């Protein structure tokens, strides 16, 4: 029997509701309907009064969650799609993100963002918002890429006193499976070496970790290159110690992300490596993202819009040839 990525998110919420009376879930159609992706299926029946349908107002959703958190609760808010969280932008960055700095009172809310693209989803249901929220002080932004991380990082997020933006990738929901959930996980803010290597480093996060591993496996078979893959896991804070240690071993860096390229997580990784680890590099660091256009609807166009193992291999060969 296997457990999927979305199963792990469901199990984590079940655990939280069972173990912590301060936790409640809030979102559009998440009670009886179980949410747009069934990530809360069955929880309303198991925990009456603690899995609550919200109005179709993301601004009001986060405002209510902030008030509940200040009153001692631990709200977990589900956005139907990450894209829609922009409606609550003011509440998230100006109120939740700054409240402890302004008053000394923490705002322990967790905002679940179904992120990233899937075939046919188009420009309003496919965006990756992690860099936008990472720009603002006071927020923690996590991007689990494995089934075990989807489970443990949600538990860790809710336990944290800081507001957390939890970016779960929709493409992984039912595609990514594991035989079990690991008993333990690294702490928030710590990256992981997913695949060891010695010739170049790919720094990735969320669904792109799996595309990076596929590309690395292909380069090994075709050319004998050993590519190290670093899974950031958390993009704010950013574990530069693990990234720089990997670059020290390999001398080359490709920062990989599904989000738009301008001002993204990959840009931050390249900038930090260039300023803090320039002496470690044997080639100019590169970044590789989706194209700088709205996300297309057609599955073929979507596949051409985002990085794939084939295009990642092309970028890596250019880096390795320098």
UniProtKB/TrEMBL annotation:
GO terms, molecular function: branched-chain 2-oxo acid dehydrogenase activity; pyruvate dehydrogenase (acetyl-transferring) activity
EC number: 1.2.4.1, 1.2.4.4
UniProt KW Hydrolase keyword: no
CDD domains: TPP_PYR_E1-PDHc-beta_like
Cofactor(s) in the UniProt record: thiamine diphosphate
Catalytic class of the enzyme: oxidoreductase
Pfam families referenced in this protein's UniProt entry, alphabetically: Transket_pyr, Transketolase_C
Listed InterPro entries: THDP-binding, Transketo_C/PFOR_II, Transketolase-like_Pyr-bd, Transketolase_C
Transketolase-like pyrimidine-binding domain mapped to chain residues: 3-175
Keyword terms of this UniProt record: Oxidoreductase, Pyruvate, Thiamine pyrophosphate
Protein name in UniProt: Pyruvate dehydrogenase E1 component beta subunit/2-oxoisovalerate dehydrogenase E1 component beta subunit
Organism phylogeny: Bacteria, Pseudomonadati, Verrucomicrobiota, Verrucomicrobiia, Verrucomicrobiales
């Amino acid at each position: 029997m296997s457990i999927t990525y979305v199963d792990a998110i469901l199990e984590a919420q079940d655990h939280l509701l069972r173990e912590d009376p301060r936790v409640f879930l809030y979102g559009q159609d998440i009670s009886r309907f179980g949410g747009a992706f069934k990530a809360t299926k069955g929880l309303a029946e198991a925990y009456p009064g603690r899995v609550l349908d919200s109005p179709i107002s993301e601004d009001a959703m986060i405002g209510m969650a902030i008030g509940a958190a200040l009153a001692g609760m631990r709200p977990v808010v589900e956005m139907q799609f990450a894209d829609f969280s922009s409606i609550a932008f003011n509440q998230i960055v100006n109120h939740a993100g700054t409240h402890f700095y302004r008053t000394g009172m923490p705002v322990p809310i967790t905002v679940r963002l179904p992120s990233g693209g899937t075939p046919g989803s188009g420009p309003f249901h496919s965006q990756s918002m992690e860099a936008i929220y990472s720009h603002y002080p006071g927020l923690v932004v996590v991007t689990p890429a494995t089934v075990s991380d989807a489970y443990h990082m949600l538990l860790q997020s809710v336990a944290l006193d800081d507001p957390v933006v939890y970016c779960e990738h929709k493409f992984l929901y039912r595609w990514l499976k594991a035989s079990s959930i690991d008993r333990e996980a690294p702490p928030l803010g710590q990256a992981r070496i997913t695949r060891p290597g010695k010739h170049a480093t790919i720094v990735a996060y969320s669904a792109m970790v799996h595309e990076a591993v596929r590309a690395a496996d292909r380069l090994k078979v075709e050319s004998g290159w050993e590519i190290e893959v670093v899974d950031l896991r958390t993009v704010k804070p950013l574990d530069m110690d693990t990234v720089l240690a990997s670059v020290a071993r390999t001398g080359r860096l490709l920062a990989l992300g599904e989000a738009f390229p301008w001002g993204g997580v990959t840009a931050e990784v390249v900038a930090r490596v260039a300023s803090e680890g320039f002496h470690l590099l044997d080639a100019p660091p590169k970044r590789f993202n989706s194209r700088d256009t709205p996300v297309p609807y057609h599955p073929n166009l979507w596949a051409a819009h985002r990085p794939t193992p084939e295009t990642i291999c092309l970028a890596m060969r250019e880096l390795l040839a320098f």
